[in-house]
């Protein structure tokens, strides 16, 4: 899953980016209102974490524009503004949740998981193929009842292949899902993750098939 963090405090942003990546998400960060607006117009996200006080363009205006384009992306507002009126305005403009600074990383993580579960969990909560089950919201995979040991990017590759529902994905699509703007991930690295996943998925009766010159598709073996 891909998350956009819009926060102008570089120290707080660094901590939140680290926490989100540790939880397994691909994360992009912007600390500037106009830049964030351009990113939101060019790229789709599974979640936006939005500060309200930003240079160049207020966070509420960003939210207004996002919802004006009929984007259903979940939005978690994080802000030092504690006034009830600000919360009401944010929710009225289409925010899904509101977290007042300062906050604990544990609560932030729980809010993120809840929003993603709410938005992606409708039909994409637990996906099954052969003996493999992938819990998208909890970011866990199982063969039968046994947990499957996957690294962060291995899970990201499996997630995008599983949610593609049998469609062929090229390496660019996989990289876009797994890596943020400032994270380098080469096509060769994708091949390595695919190779590791193949071995781990064999007991589940699931295979990643290479379609030469096109990409990869996840299928029951």
Write a concise keyword list for the protein shown above.
5-stranded parallel sheet, 221 residues, Arc Repressor Mutant, subunit A, alpha/beta, 4-stranded antiparallel sheet, 44% helix
Quick recap:
The protein is of the alpha/beta class. The chain has helices at 10-22, 33-42, 59-68, 84-92, 105-124, 152-163, 171-178, 187-201; strands spanning 2-6, 26-30, 47-51, 75-79, 97-100, 126-129, 132-135, 140-143, 146-147, 206-211, 215-220. It has two domains: 2-121, Rossmann fold; 125-220, Winged helix-like DNA-binding domain superfamily/Winged helix DNA-binding domain (Arc Repressor Mutant, subunit A), CATH 1.10.10.
Unreliable spans? none
Report strand order across the widest sheet.
Answer: 2-1-3-4-5
> Terminal Cα separation, in Å?
26 Å
| Strand content bin | 15-25%
Discrete helix count: 8
Q: Can you summarize the main beta sheet? A: 5 strands, parallel
Q: Report the C-alpha radius of gyration, rounded.
A: 18 Å
In the CATH hierarchy, what is the class of the largest domain? Alpha Beta
The helix/strand series, from N terminus to C terminus, equals EHEHEHEHEHEEEEHHHEE
Supply the CATH superfamily name of the largest domain.
Response regulator
Helix share bin:
40-55%
Task: Give the overall average pLDDT.
Answer: 89
Helices and strands: which structural class? alpha/beta
Work out the number of β strands. Answer: 11
CATH architecture label name of the largest domain: 3-Layer(aba) Sandwich
Which geometry do the CA atoms define?
elongated
Question: Can you tell me the number of structural domains?
Answer: 2
């Amino acid at each position: 899953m891909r998350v956009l963090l819009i926060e102008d405090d570089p120290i707080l942003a660094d901590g939140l980016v680290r926490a989100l990546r540790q939880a397994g998400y691909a994360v992009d960060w912007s600390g500037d209102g106009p830049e964030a607006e351009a990113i939101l117009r060019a790229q789709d996200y599974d979640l936006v974490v939005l500060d309200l006080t930003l240079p160049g363009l207020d966070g509420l205006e960003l939210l207004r524009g996002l919802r004006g384009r009929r984007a259903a992306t979940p939005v978690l507002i994080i802000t030092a503004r504690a006034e009830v009126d600000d919360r009401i305005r944010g929710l009225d403009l289409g925010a899904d949740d509101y977290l007042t600074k300062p906050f604990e990383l544990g609560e932030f993580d729980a809010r993120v998981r809840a929003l993603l579960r709410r938005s992606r969990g409708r039909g994409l909560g637990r996906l099954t193929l052969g003996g493999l089950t992938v819990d998208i919201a909890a970011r866990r995979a199982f063969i039968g009842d046994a947990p499957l040991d996957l690294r962060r990017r291995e899970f990201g590759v499996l997630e995008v292949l599983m949610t593609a529902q049998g469609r062929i994905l090229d390496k660019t699509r996989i990289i876009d899902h797994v890596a943020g703007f400032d994270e380098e991930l080469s096509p060769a690295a994708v091949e390595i993750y695919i190779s590791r996943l193949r071995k781990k998925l064999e007991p589940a009766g699931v295979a990643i098939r290479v379609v030469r010159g096109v990409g990869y598709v996840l299928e029951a073996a």
